[in-house]
Automatic annotation (TrEMBL):
This is Lytic polysaccharide monooxygenase. It comes from the Eukaryota. Residues 1-19 form the signal peptide. The lineage of its organism: Eukaryota, Fungi, Dikarya, Basidiomycota, Agaricomycotina. Belongs to the polysaccharide monooxygenase AA14 family. Keywords: Copper, Disulfide bond, Glycoprotein, Metal-binding, Monooxygenase, Oxidoreductase, Secreted, Signal.
Length: 223
């Protein structure tokens, strides 16, 4: 386990592990990276996969980021993914923050590679989509937990997280929208926690990804 972590760290440092993906949004944990007080416009902590780590390492202590603890770097106060009941919300799926509209004034926004790759017979590896084409892309989900009032991400558990939206044939484009059920209940005043999840469908190396966000339901009519 320790040696796996060391190997992972080594590979990251060598730049051999790259082109993983995450859903970027101001409401995410680790938006600015994991150096206190530093806003890293090219942060990539969020894309670290959690495959083959023991659950204790990626859930209870660091929630989703393998290294280091993302739970200590919540979004700025007031930054949430807003979930309009009966509507949709949009995130940016990319390999690091530098490739999104959140950094460098959008100068390095990743191209949507869909067209370039649609004919590929092999697994697309850069960016690492883990799929041959859009049709076979595994799909990604968002789940929500209502337990996380008091802003305490440690109250989020597998038991109180509920998947509320699935987007088939993703990851694919950078801008990706997810539908919100009309009946999604309102969150406590200080919001809910959401989680983005992706388990690629065995194209290339097996992997799994998970990342936390603060979120809140807008215009909820049920409770
Ligand atoms: C961001 O980091 C990636 C490597 O993770 C690098 O390829 C890219 O050039 C960096 N972008 C900027 C704008 O520094
Ligand atoms: C991240 O950096 C942005 C831009 O500098 C800043 O507005 C925001 O408050 C920072 N977020 C956190 C959680 O520090
Ligand atoms: C997508 O990839 C799969 C697996 O290689 C293949 O069977 C399928 O024909 C491809 N679909 C398209 C639209 O290229």
């Amino acid at each position: 386990m320790q040696s796996n972590l060391r190997l992972l760290t080594l590979l990251i440092n060598l730049g051999l592990v790259h082109a993983h993906m995450a859903a970027w949004h101001r409401g995410m944990y680790c938006l600015n990276g994991t150096t206190p007080g530093v806003d890293n416009e090219n942060a990539s902590e969020a894309v670290r996969p959690v495959y083959q780590l023991p659950k204790s390492e990626w859930w209870s202590t660091s929630f989703s980021c393998a290294l280091p603890s993302c739970d200590e770097f919540p979004p700025a106060p007031g930054d949430f993914i807003e979930l309009p009941a009966g509507g949709s919300f949009t995130v940016e799926i990319a390999g690091n923050r530098g490739q999104t509209s959140l950094s460098y004034g959008g100068k390095y926004i990743a191209n949507d590679l869909a067209d370039d790759y649609s004919e590929s017979p092999n697994c697309i590896t850069s960016p690492n989509y883990h799929t041959q084409n859009k049709t076979t892309a595994a799909g990604t989900v968002f789940a929500i937990s209502y337990q996380a009032s008091e802003c305490d991400i440690k109250q989020v558990t597998a038991e109180n997280l509920v998947v509320f939206t699935v987007k088939y044939h993703t990851p694919w484009n950078r801008l990706t929208s997810y539908n919100v059920p009309a009946a999604l209940p309102a969150c406590p005043d200080d919001g809910c926690h959401c989680v983005w999840g992706w388990v690629p469908n065995h194209c290339g190396q097996p992997n799994m990804y998970m990342h936390p966000y603060k979120c809140k339901v807008i215009g909820a009519t049920s409770s």
